[in-house]
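Reply to dn_fold:

You asked what the input looked like. This is it:
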Amino acid sequence: MFDSGADIVYAAAGSTGLGVLQAAADNKKLSIGVDSNQNYIQPGSVLTSMLKRVDVAAYEVFKTGHDGSWKSGFKILGLAEDGVGWALDEHNAKLVTSAMESKVEQVRKGIISGSIKVHDYMSDNKCPAQ
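and this is what came back:
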């Protein structure tokens, strides 16, 4: 992907995405980690990491199990529930400007409020950006 001109590659592949982080560092490009904070793996070339807040999900399950309100099925934990997020720390702080951070916060608030619509692929098995 970098050889084809990409400046940033989102390594949405769990631990197999570590090769993407390495390739970005080797090519003086940027990557985005996934699932947990991977910024430390290649400091200065991981723009951020998409956080899958499994801790929040686990806590929610245990809490509802404890208080007797647990129900089977899907439970979606998005931005409003702090189920997903992004990582900003000492390993990528120099890559993220205050304007970028402000824009991310603006978009986060827009998604939570509903003023920015995010397509739910599971609703129709289609990607609107094809």
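The chain has a mean pLDDT of 94.
Hope that clears it up.
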